[in-house]
Design brief:
By secondary structure, the protein is α/β, with parallel strands linked by helices. It has 16 helices and ten strands.
């Protein structure tokens, strides 16, 4: 059994818990494990085993996802077929995700499925992430060439001298939300009072919200890793991603209504493609090829996701084709907005990055002047190379 299969099956039959780990700040020294269901604890124990092998995996020891090879002519010993020669000529690079394969990574998998990376002369190995996988650190230490992370996490990495830079932002709008009951009548954050809210206390978005809103008589509890309590209690709200927890809750008969955190001004770029500073300076052609192929992948995924979703489902059985289809529809307005329609998919701006830095300073997650905003990103590769 390959590691990819083990990663996915470690979470099998835990449908309510598939989003557990992404919502915790696992590296925070003040983190305390919340009260969990038996299934959640089983998940954590399994992931604890995975934590032992993930570092080896990230170094490239894991096998690639199985593929059905195309029929090729039999070669005479000592010779190379045309297909083999073409494959051998491709440049091999690794792309590490920040989570298990799902819709928010669809554009990158689409670039692989539809051959956009190959057309650019690249053999891109997409490596699933997981809880506590240090994407920024892996890129900064040059153990992998490219990674996927969110803007606030990149800021934290740069503050610790990690030489990583964002090349494109897949999602212009963060999918982070607070999920409330439709029947509660809550339509805005100011309406949240006299209830229980399950929200990770160490996450930047959580600290931003608690500083901005009074939340009168609100009891904050750790995120439980499932929607069980939400389904049982009407005076209960919880954090989530718009394409995950609401889907699970509605699937089980709930009445979810979401309040986007981005609507309150905290909107870090999400699923950013990053690389090492040296790639930008010394190997810009590689950076451009990966960015351009990834942009094509996202355009393809949003237009026709079926083939890509089949691959993602094969890599992560917890992501049903129904859930992935739901995810794509929720992703479309987060990826394509008025800015990207004018500037192009993947666009990033200095003012937006500066806002993110300022907000992290305001909530005491970054020291003033610790991060130089212009070092966080480059837009150099968002346009195709000019032809001579």
């Amino acid at each position: 059994m390959g590691l990819m299969t083990i990663v996915c099956t470690a979470r099998s039959s835990l449908v309510d818990d598939i989003w557990l780990c992404r919502h915790y700040d696992w590296g925070d020294p003040n983190f305390q494990e919340p009260t969990m269901s038996l299934n959640s604890r089983t998940l954590i124990s399994r992931l604890g085993w995975l934590a032992c092998v993930l570092p080896l995996w990230c170094l490239g020891c894991a096998p690639k996802p199985a593929e059905t090879p195309a029929a090729t002519p039999t070669a005479t010993p000592g010779t190379t077929t045309g297909a083999d020669a073409k494959t051998a000529s491709l440049r091999k690079v690794k792309l590490l995700l920040n989570w298990f394969p799902e819709a928010e990574h669809g554009g990158f998998y689409a670039a692989q499925v539809h051959g956009y990376y190959r057309d650019a002369g690249l053999d891109v190995e997409i490596m699933p992430g997981g809880p506590n996988v240090p994407v920024v650190q892996q890129v900064a230490s040059k153990q992998i060439e490219f990674g996927i992370t969110n803007a606030d996490d990149l800021c934290f990495g740069r503050a610790e001298q990690a030489a990583a830079v964002a090349l494109m932002a897949s999602l212009q709008t963060s999918p982070r939300c607070i999920m409330v009951h439709e029947k509660s009548g809550i339509k805005k954050f100011e309406d949240i009072h006299d209830m229980t809210v399950a929200m990770s206390p160490t996450k930047a978005f959580s600290q931003f919200l608690q500083k901005k809103f009074p939340f009168k008589n609100v009891q904050f509890v750790p995120y439980p890793g499932n929607v069980a309590q939400f389904l049982l209690k009407e005076d209960y709200a919880q954090q989530g991603y718009v394409f995950s927890e609401p889907f699970l809750a509605k699937q089980q008969g709930g009445d979810p209504h979401v309040l986007l955190v981005s609507d309150q001004g905290f909107n870090p770029y999400t699923s950013c493609l990053i690389t090492h500073d040296d790639v930008v300076r010394k190997d810009p052609e590689l950076a451009r090829k990966v960015v351009q192929a990834s942009i094509k992948g996202w355009q393809q995924y949003l237009a026709e996701p079926t083939k890509t979703n089949e691959l993602i489902h094969s890599l992560n059985k917890e992501m049903s084709l129904e859930a992935l289809a739901f995810g794509v529809e929720k992703l479309k307005p987060l990826v394509e907005d008025t800015v990207t329609k004018a500037q192009g998919l993947g666009h990033m701006g200095l003012e937006r990055w500066q806002t993110i830095v300022d907000q992290l300073v305001e909530i005491d997650r970054l020291a003033p002047d610790k991060v130089k905003t212009s070092d966080l990103f480059t837009t150099e590769f968002l346009k195709p190379a000019e032809k001579n």
